[in-house]
Design goal:
- The structure holds 2 protein chains of 2 kinds.
- Chain A is α/β, with parallel strands linked by helices.
- Chain A has a single domain, classed as Rossmann fold, CATH 3.40.50.
- Helices cover 43% and strands 13% of the residues of chain A.
- A 6-stranded parallel beta sheet of chain A has the order 2-1-3-4-5-6.
- The longest helix of chain A has 18 residues.
- Chain B is mainly beta.
- Chain B folds into 3 domains: 136 residues, Immunoglobulin-like, CATH 2.60.40.3870; 126 residues, Jelly Rolls; 107 residues, Sandwich (Immunoglobulin-like).
- In chain B, the strands form 6 sheets. In chain B, strands 1, 2, 25, 26, 28 and 29 form a 6-stranded antiparallel beta sheet that branches. In chain B, strands 3, 13, 15, 16 and 19 form a 5-stranded antiparallel beta sheet that branches.
- Classes of the chains: A alpha/beta, B mainly beta.
Chain lengths: 275, 399
Amino acid sequence: MRTSVLGLALAALLLVPSPALAKKGVVFVHGKGGSDLANQSVANAYWGSDMIRATTKGYAVPYLVCHYDGTQYMWVAAGQVAGQITTWMNANAVDEIQVVTHSFGGVVLRWILSNPTYDSRYPAILSRIQRVNALAPPNRGSEAANLAGTLSGSWLTGWLVSLVGQNNDSTKNCTTTSMAYYNQYYLKGSAGRPALPKPYYNVAGTGLWNDFAHGEDYGLATLSGVAGMPGEDDGMVSQYSAQGAGTNWFLTLANHHHNRRNDYRKLGTSLAGTY
Amino acid sequence: MKTRTFISTLLATLVAAAPLAGGEVAVGRFAPGETVAPFAAASPEADSRTFVKTALLDGGRAVVDLPATGTGTLLVWVLPAGEPDAALRAGDGAAGRELETRLTTPAGRVLGPDADGGRADAVRRFRIEEFGAEELGLAVGARQEALRVLAPEPGLHRLELSAPGAAAVTVAVAELDSPIVLTTWAAPLSRQPGEPVTLYARLLDGGNPVSGVISARIAPQGGSAGEVVTLFDDGLHGDGDAGDGHFAVTLEGLDLPAGPVEIRVEAEGRDGHGSAFARTGAAGFVSERGSARLLPGSVRSEWLGEGDLRVLRVTATAAVREGGDFRLDVLAAGAPLADGSRPGLAWAERTGDLRAGHEELVVDLPAALLGDGPVSLDVRLLGLSRPGVAGRATLDVAR
């Protein structure tokens, strides 16, 4: 049997100081993307300095921008994230963590919250997380990920396969089929499943079709239409999916999926108000 | 949403430690009013009003005919495959020549490559430089475009395209408001080695059956698609009644690697006015590794102890083919409600390192969490070293 982490978790719980003495910190966990998101600089650029500054109240609290390979399954990504959080929280003596996630990052955090025995580092992280704020998490999958499968080279022959490419593991992770499977067996917090052990607040984007009128993001507007996303969506994740786990916090109107930077006033200010 | 504190879990864990097996145990309770969802045996249904074609380019050019029923806005997304030649991209004015399209509607309206159309025009072009291709893992060219046709005529829309440097172009066409919908799904959602897989489709026009032909291919993790299989609407393939718009086919003897399996479904037909249509749908399932399985009939329960120490002990036997970390999950629920869900009572998880061979698994649920009413158990064995479902069983508990 693997070494029990129960004692460690209990000890960690008892060592957490009272709220008045707690040292707070903010962790950013990005979403899917390229393998270059494993680089710190690329992950920093993903969020943008305005968003980081607004969320950390002008850098008034310690923060960590996690950087993981954006092409991998959630448990692979979670391993990289857990290592970085562990090192950071110990080095900075942070004992109360607000986690801010975007897109697939919210699913990565649900993996950590739902499967504490998967990795011996998870319980200590769990004991210090105060709250997760998940921006546009594909908790019930994404029709855009389904479409990516249809558009991939898997359906072609010979050299065309490599030319068009095959959708990567993180995209397979986010199809509606895969997320139905993971929600049923591995992930907590969705309807009819045990609760997540820590508060998990979702923010869903809506009003994406305004973009055809306002010219903000024709690409996501096209993706939304062709993928056939039901109801409101942000071009990549439908509202019903973002709200498929945790507590519904608020909606962002005229939003689109990639605006973790340019909507920093609304999102960053809201995030900074949670601790 | 329910809440549960980590403290309560840890305290419950101390109570729940079972003497017959080691490993890490966690126990929790469902909050009052929370339910355990009905088990989903199939993948979620996915609707499509879109069809997808990939055309090989000859000398950088191709012509693609796009059927439309004229029942709503038409959105045509053109995606050159792969990066254009570097020399072309670097050349003077080359960026404008990476992709050129001309769309001609059945009535002869034309949107040429030098016009984009305005807000008031029925046919309009939107140039797209980014939509999240990398996020979706797609290797598309640096530039795509969307063509929008308001109030399209029924019939074939001709798309002439030029994409120097690209070898193929994928065109995805959506009839956004069309009543013709292809719905696709597959079962089982979790497929153990050797199990058959059934592909399902429903092709309806405003809720009524519409004539069409449906085929599918499946692509395993990391592989290319297999042979085309036909789905049937003859009432003989688990598809309901003949001609009711419900299609199915069951595939036996599939040899698939572990991991998610994608399914692409193609439908073609004509609507009640004789207009041709096409739809492309997606579905999937997970091909399990078969690293372990719960032995049939091995899942049992018994009440043990008295008073505060009384527990419901759940035992099972796993036949382990590949050793590693596994977790036994037990969800306890009450009597079924009208919607098929059950009021959630409690859950327990035991994680342990199982070796190849037969392993006895034990987990205890404190009786105090289970109330006095009927109890049903949903027991799952899940892989952790290699995520995947190794087995599942349900059990009604005698009081």
